[in-house]
Amino acid sequence: MGSEELTPSEESRSHFKQLIAIGLVASVLGVALGLLIDWFPTQGSEQAETVDTLWDVLIIASVPVFVLVITVVLYCVWRYRMKPGEELKDGPPIHGNTRLEIVWTAIPAILLVALCSYSYVALTDIEEAKADSLEVRVVGQQFTWTFYYKGADGKEVGSAQLYVPRGRPVYFTIQSKDVIHDFWVPAFRMKIDAVPGIDTHLRITPKTPGEYPVICAELCGLGHAAMRQTAHVVEQDEFDRWLRERSAAAEGGGAAPEEQGGGGAAPDAKAVFEDAGCGGCHTLADAGTTGGTGPDLDKGLKGKDEAFIRESIVDPSAEITPGYSDGIMPPNFGDTLQPAELDALVKYLAKVTK
Length: 354
Ligand code: CUA
Prior knowledge:
CATH architecture of the largest domain: Sandwich
Radius of gyration: 30 Å
CATH superfamily of the largest domain: Cupredoxins -  blue copper proteins
Shape: elongated
Distance between the termini: 98 Å
Helix content: 40-55%
Number of domains: 3
Largest sheet: 5 strands, mixed
Number of strands: 12
Strand order of the largest sheet: 3-2-1-5-8
Bound molecules: dinuclear copper ion
CATH class of the largest domain: Mainly Beta
Number of helices: 9
Mean pLDDT: 86
Order of helices and strands: HHHEEEEEEEEEEHHEEHHHH
């Protein structure tokens, strides 16, 4: 009497209680950690909220399941390990447990159906067609994106930069000129393949003004890692002004006269170099870039005149630097850069590589 000896069933019940306690604590810690970690970039679109909430719900649902499985596995490995002298011992003959099997089939099934239904509702919500959408055609090619807008006169205007107005729904049509690319703006939380011969679509409503990376998320060749540009979420009036300027530039006249506030200052050439993504492929000491996919500009452009530099940008196939392949550099910078931007870029490169 007064002994602390437990019968086998009492002992296993106390182990079970310990197991539940460990599982509960680990689940609460895991869920808290999962919700505290800042997994994603700024919510650049309204769709981002729905996606992030879906993520949080999946964390809350899946962490306890993960913890349950791991706790039971680790506990069993420890509790039922083979001790010295037990080498020939066999376990108890078990022929199944109907109640347990029904429970462990039904609970995961209910969980899965619930999560699938919720995901479906979230997907329908973020893909919902909205009236008065701005249409942007996105064309991928090795190794750049070009964004086409409908200008004031109905003509298409191309740009190497993605501009979208805050609060206005945008309907993207995504195309590819060569291989499969993938149009991804992490801040918008939306992503879709650009497939040659097929139009794919995405909808977002820009929410937070700012600049966000546009990334190609499909391995598409040598310059894949450099296929990065910038998405600008701006206010509607700034967007209108930008589109007017681009339309005017596309007409060949540079910025329209009434837009040339501040004396029509020339574009910042280093910013053009950065925005067009040149540094992704080219090394240029002055801009601090170290890309190796294309020729080193400090060496390759040394002593070259402006005419050569201009030709290398607008018609990269005209002369190929030994050791590099034709077709790596996008051939459309003559279209996507404004004439003033191209002029500034040529002058800048001639100056810094002298
Ligand atoms: Cu285009 Cu990767």
